[in-house]
Amino acid sequence: MYSREVEKVLNGKKIAIGDKVRLEKGKEVLEGILMPRPDSGDQSILVIKLDNGYNIGVDFNSVSSVERMGTTAQEFTFPKAKLQRNKALNTVKLLYTGGTIGSKVDYATGGVYMLTKPEELLYDVPELAGIANLDVEYLMSVASEDMTYTEWQLIARKAAEAFASGVSGVMITHGTDTMHFTSAALSFMLQGLPGPVVLVGAQRSPDRGSSDAFMNLICAAHIAASSGIAEVGTCMHASSSDDYCAFIRGTKVRKLHTSARDAFKPVNNAPLAKVSVDGSMHHLGTFNKADPKKKVVLKDGYEPKVALLYMYPNSDPSLIGHYISKGYKGLIIGATGLGHMPISTSHKEYNWLNGVKDAVAAGMVVGITSQCLFGRVSGTVYRYGRMLTEAGAIYCEDMMPEVAYVKLGWLLGNYSKKEAEKLLAVDMVGEITRRTEAEWHDEQ
Amino acid sequence: MNSDKMAHDYKKLGFMCGLEIHQRLATKEKLFCSCSASLSEDRKTLSIMRRQRAVAGELGQIDRSTAFESRKGRHFTYNLFKSSSCLVDSDEEPPHALNQEALEAAIIISESLNARIPDEIEVMRKGVVDGSDPGAFQRTMLIGFNGYIELSGKKVPVPSIFLEEESSGIVSSNPDSVEYNLDRFAIPLIEIDTDPVIESPSHAKEVAMRIGLLLRLTGMAQRGIGSIRQDVNVSIKSGARVEIKGFQDLDIMDTIIENEVTRQVSLVKARDTLRSRGAKAGKATDVTHLFKSTTAKILSAQLADGGVVIGIRLHGFKGVVGMEIAPGMRLGTEISDYAKMAGVRGIIHSDEDMNTYGITEKELLQLSKALELGDEDAFVLVAEKSDKAERAAQLAIERADKAVEGVPSETRAVDQKRLCTRFMRPVPGGSRMYPETDVLPVLAGHLVKKAQSKKVDIDAARKALHEQIGNTQLAEQMLWSRELPLYRAVISETKASPAVAASVLLEKFRELSRAGVRIERIPPDTIIEIFSLYSKGRITKAGIGEILSEEPKDGAAVEIIIEEKKLQRISGKKLQELISSFDKTDKPSLMREIMLKHKYNVEGDELSRLIK
Predict the structure, then answer these.
(1) Number of domains within chain A
(2) Catalytic one of A91, A100, A173, A178
(3) Whether pTM exceeds 0.90
(4) Which of B323, B504, B524, B601 has the largest CB neighbor count within 10 A?
């Protein structure tokens, strides 16, 4: 956005973004295309794209004249990707929800925009046509940080519909930030799956030749089409290299890096499979086997009045009062270590035991997980744990805080409070492992 | 500038030539991260493998050269290093803020080239898919425009000066993969472009030298092999723009440009011949069956390995394929260089002697029949695995057809051995630039003000050196020497006299290099340390050379060398005692005797003063 003063002059001269302009600045004459001003920085700097392709910023106040020279509209329309059906291939539904994998830099303006036509993505990855018959459906263009349970429900319903129509698997392109929340939600909402539901994203947008989107999509398509696995999971780079992806169970995956390609790692479990670009797969651990005869059991209820709280030194339990006053029905605590909270600090007001008691008394289901992420919580090792258990808090085994959070919302949306309490720490869809294998870490 | 014997009348040919000079900056850190930019020895920590592909470009089309590289289906290996590469380099982390030291240097250089600086500098992404950039684009920005450099009273316009990321260093390359080191990647690099107003090959060399000198004088130029590279754009009126990459040795620049002009002139001649014959490349024909029992090793080896032989008729090409177009280069070489992009080792063409390959008359006759060759026709054979051979054949046909059009617009590489250029890839199109959205633009005003006092003036620098060093010849040598920054550091950080510093850094360095000493392995700080010891009287001037010859890594190593080689200077009272210990009395023989025994410990002038 340019400043009001600049806009006024530009409007007066009928100059629009993308027009070719001529500027006079002292003895200098500059010609180029007027570019939009990014949201940050000095709003009176005109950004001009010169003939050599470079942008420069010209201080509007130092310019003696601005003239419009013409337009340079050069909008690119992607050729329609022909999606040919190959009888020898399985059919895969691709649900498009947005995110980096569905966004591109607008080469003209530098702004990032969401692709609204999934075929724009397929244009860059023609290999997909040789892996599966893709049935692409645009659901939404939502950045993953903007996803809510409403979007989870819509995606779950669409996936269930797709399986009902006989597809072998479902692919969901998704932003990466909260992909592990969505994968957990779908794991609970979609039970009795006949085939895989594969969430796939990208840490680098597909406008760059180095994007991880291409390999992730190819590997995800292989998983969706022919892995024989019937689980919800994410399919992303397993390492920094473009050699293979890991398909990780939706309740056992977490984004563990802000920007790297291999940000998604399995926690407390091995990945379900490794898959290469050429389609070769290495299955690891146990999983539900695909069976086209199975029918999806859709349980898409969700109770959004559940909160996730992070424990830290000096944290104030009076926060719980806020949730009680707002009518919250559930609370998951990302506690420290084995599942501990401040109870006997030098500041009496920091005693979380009372907070937990208040929450339970107000009818909330309270679950305890660990911010360590790796490992299992225990309510019996230390005295504080026993006190919290006695107060009514439920220790959530080796579930990550986010997974327990999603699970509790889902439980309260589909079951009675009593059932929810009973089921929170019981494995339902692979979110809790009864055994933590020692060597899984090496399998990554 | 017209002292050379010109091989061509460049004016008449419509010779156009411009330079792109790339100079690495001697900054502490890289352009967009805090990795070391010094390129000192570093430990490799990790290798990663990546693939890249062409994506729909800025103007909607996949850029021509981008698509070309992508077609090659290569994968890339990147080596990361402990202190000189990080996640920003491997495209795993967004860029950090722009390196201010590099920006300031770029602005000083732009100001020294009389350029205008934009009010605000905008970082761009320039698509690169040869793999040399792990992110598939180079970050680059325009720092200066409308500048010029003066040479013999004439202005050579410098329309643009860029600050950008250095590409990765190539380790090895084969048709399927390329290996790069990321230690060099993203070191700040300055690119200086001139207008195509250069009049002759020797003029090109002079302009390049002048710009190189200016860069060194800023004190911001990195030293060492590959730290400065020149690309040259050359064309003649009836030819085409050819971008020659990777000049490192200015001594051969003029010869290579001359030979490139010869090549273009020859290709135009070839074009005229081909056109008069209505020449055209035919299609690829599988002729494997003709060579089933061939004794030609080059073919039989491929066939034994499951390969095929593909023949192409080149209608009207007879004699033209084998025509020499530049020293040691034929049109056949060009066709072969295209075909090699598909991963074949080379081609066979009919203007070669078939006996050397062991292809028989009978086989030739059958081939001629199969390809329906006429009297003026030539042929090309490719032997490889079927997919490679087919791709190679298509590329060979592409190049042959281009010969009928004349000179193709290409990016070419310097061939140091033959002093000519070799095909690298087609010239990149202009449609691959878009804004780097991860980095904020930078207002330049305050830096431009700051740069004024640091602007470089070649004539003033020359005058200052002459005054310091005294010896005109040595001063002029120092002005042009890559050791100038080191010289400046030595005289500002130690009390060594400029004359001694210049003599060691120029004469002694040369002498030692010739004797096989790898001077470049001695860190500049160590060299400064040695001069410091000298100026404090711990060692003699002769001792400096002795220490340098051992290639010491650091100050501690220097001390050890002084100890082991007994290089401590003897002076003052101790020198008096030494003189007294000799029984000679006549001055010349006493001097001779002492210097013979203690040439590294005694300064001759002090000795001469003390012997009365």
Answers:
(1) 3
(2) A100
(3) no
(4) B504
